[in-house]
Design goal:
Largest sheet: 7 strands, mixed
Strand content: 25-35%
Radius of gyration: 24 Å
Number of strands: 27
């Protein structure tokens, strides 16, 4: 039986963090407030983009007393893995984050926007471990210090004595519920709003299969990284995608290791998860189940079509593993029964396009292929392996039609 949880696990533990010593001659009662970490998943992964200080109980602040220099923010990200694990985690940091905007709402809560950009250290919530090759959630500690007093509407100055770190929130990731399939496969599920769209009142199901870095590691089956590592699943819950699909369910299972480690074993577990969702929710259209994935998940999307040639409306393998080490010629030829759109970048050095996507395209009848020179989005060039960024932004085109629109038209 599937188990579902309604709340997202907290990232890091709350800790009381002392504020800067009170400025002399500022009269204020002792105060302590909590603050939230607000995160968003950028194309390169999740970052903490702002903080919300829950100061409303202190009264109504004069907005003119809040400046960019009122608060300073120190961010520290540490690996959750013990030194005895023999894993080296990249991306840790201990630095001051720039406050780019500060505002107070009508409830007295203060939001500090933080400098955020692709490739800039200091905001990431995930670190990459080697040799395991996994993304793990950092233990995050944010320290806020108050450099100048705030004024209430009555002009009384206020210094906050201590700040307590609370939850990490991400509206997109938090929109997915938690579940565990009958076979023990953890997953996250997005349920569309009741917008009245969909054939005969039913909605498609998009199955997102993550890359190797977002799989579990040992006992760390946190059911998080497959949503936070990139926008592969999140792209399909955006208003644009939901309108195109007429409201789509999106499920993102997490491999306990890596899909490539046991494709034969994982394929029936993924298929069983799909069947469980179909059985428990009659609003999902069994004729419109779409499977896509990147890297390890690209391989796994091909594997699902090989093993279940009449089950899926479409598959979208992105930078997949498709060499003879993974599939025979006959297996790839059998994928021809499932509409297929392949996405890859020519500068991919992890899974080079020619022996993988090139080989698959040559063997799968009528397969559509979108091949990029590099992975460059909004002026930032990413690693060549990260071509899933294009799919998550509905960028691939064929004969004037974009990927998501093509998927939405496919059905068994």
């Amino acid at each position: 039986m599937m188990e579902r949880l309604s709340r997202r696990a907290l990232l890091g533990s709350a800790a009381a963090i002392p504020a800067l010593a009170a400025i002399p001659q500022v009269a204020s009662a002792a105060t302590s407030v909590s603050f939230d970490l607000n995160a968003s998943v950028l194309d390169g992964g999740e970052q903490v983009t702002s903080l919300t200080i829950r100061a409303g109980a202190l009264g109504q602040f004069d907005p003119s007393s809040l400046t960019l220099g009122t608060f300073a923010v120190l961010a520290k990200a540490e690996s959750p893995l013990p030194s005895s694990s023999n894993q080296l985690t990249f991306g840790t940091y201990d630095l001051e984050r720039e406050v780019t905007a500060a505002r107070v709402d009508n409830r007295g809560n203060i939001t500090l926007d933080l400098a955020t950009a692709e490739g800039v250290p200091g905001g990431g919530t995930l670190g990459y471990t080697v040799p395991a090759g996994r993304n793990v959630e950092f233990d995050l500690t944010y320290t806020i210090t108050q450099n100048a007093p705030l004024r209430l509407r009555n002009q009384r100055p206020v210094m906050i004595d201590s700040f307590t770190q609370s939850e990490l929130t991400n509206p997109e990731a938090d929109a997915f519920s938690y579940g565990t399939s009958a076979s023990g496969l953890n997953y996250r599920l997005y349920t569309p709003s009741n917008n009245g769209h969909g054939r005969a009142g039913r909605h498609p199901l998009v199955v997102w299969l993550h890359g190797g870095g977002e799989g579990g590691m040992d006992a760390r089956q946190t059911n998080e990284a497959q949503l936070r590592g990139n926008r592969g699943a999140l792209g399909f819950i955006t208003p644009e995608a939901q309108q195109i699909f007429g409201g789509a369910y999106v499920v993102a299972p997490q491999s306990p290791s890596a899909w490539m480690n046991d494709g034969d074993g994982f394929a029936p577990r993924i298929a069983a998860l799909v069947d469980e969702l179909l059985a428990s929710n009659h609003k999902i259209d069994p004729q419109r189940v779409h499977v896509l994935g990147c890297s390890n998940g690209g391989y796994m999307s091909l594997k699902m079509a090989v093993e279940y040639p009449t089950k899926f409306a479409s598959i979208v393998p992105i930078c997949p593993g498709a060499t003879p080490n993974f599939f025979t010629d006959a297996e790839l030829q059998s994928v021809s029964s499932t509409p297929t759109w392949l996405v890859h970048s020519k500068d991919d050095t992890v899974l080079p396009w020619e022996p993988n996507t090139g080989r698959a395209a040559a063997l799968i009848d009528d397969a559509i292929v979108t091949l990029y020179d590099t992975v460059t989005w909004q002026g930032h060039q990413f690693m060549g392996h990260w071509s899933w960024i294009y799919a998550a932004r509905n960028n691939p085109q064929h004969n004037g039609q974009h990927l998501w629109q093509w998927m939405a038209e496919q059905h068994r």
